[in-house]
Amino acid sequence: MKAIVIEQYGGKDQLIEKEVPTPEIKSNQVLVELHATSINPIDWKLREGYLKEMLDFDFPITLGWDAAGVVKDVGVDVQKFKAGDRVFARPELSRFGTYAEYAAIDEHVLSHLPESISYEQAAAVPLAGLTARQCLVDFAEIKEGDKVLIHAGSGGVGHYAVQIAKSFGAYVATTASGKNKEWVEQLGVDRFINYQEEDFSEVLEEFDIVLDTLGGEVQEKSFGVLKQGGRLASIVQPPDEQLADEQKVKAGFVWLEPDGEKLAQLANLMVKGEMISKVGHRFPLTEQGLREAHELSETHHATGKIVITIPS
């Protein structure tokens, strides 16, 4: 099968197309013919070697940890899926990723994909959508009426977080650039903050939850907009524990745990029309396509998600 792999750490030119064996599935796995995947910052961070101490994979490495496609074969212990099922998933982290025509995926991270959701829409969701859900639901225990600040609401994790928070009946503020104001407000945002013109820390106060997607100074300032007992979830760096104690807030770094049942809950939101995928950019599964996709992701200015299409 065709795959885009890296054989050493480095720049986007390390992404090369190769013919590799189709994966052999274990008893608890499903072989999925992929129709789409998507780009996440972890892809190029691993490619550059930033994560090699945490994720010490042997080369060659096939990057990519979002999957949408059709089941081709199932292991002997698989109970919930059969050949022909439409599925999507955030696979477990391994060196056999989803920049490929096929992937072997553990049953427990898979979810059925409703007919009303396209493969492109679905491929955009798993890593970013589950990250947003884990931050807001599992860590911050969001409830109706909470005031929630989501940084970078036009980004991959951000635009799902806005919609998940609204589905709980929360009041949502978000930061983004002025060019994204209209479409972010269409997601239901109650207070839009153009970070180029306003300082969120000067106009917001007494919030229950902050979702930090940026880190650094933004994270530090975010403590100041939380009420006592508030919650700050970061997906970029561990928050300052001393600052959290001083402000009397719960703060933590959230590392995603993939889960097929929770992914099914996000699919249900999409079916009900309470959540959409913003596919802002599409590239083909080629060397050039992946290199351009990585280059765009590294700018941190992509709108919504970057999807890779995989012709069957």
Automatic annotation (TrEMBL):
InterPro entries: ADH-like_N (IPR013154), ER (IPR020843), GroES-like_sf (IPR011032), NAD(P)-bd_dom_sf (IPR036291), Quin_OxRdtase/zeta-crystal_CS (IPR002364), YIM1/Zinc_Alcohol_DH_Fams (IPR050700). SMART domains: PKS_ER. One of its GO terms (molecular function) is oxidoreductase activity. The keyword Oxidoreductase applies. Keywords: Oxidoreductase. It comes from the Bacteria. The keyword Phosphoprotein does not apply. Residues 10-308 form the Enoyl reductase (ER) domain. This is NADPH:quinone reductase. It comes from Halobacillus andaensis.
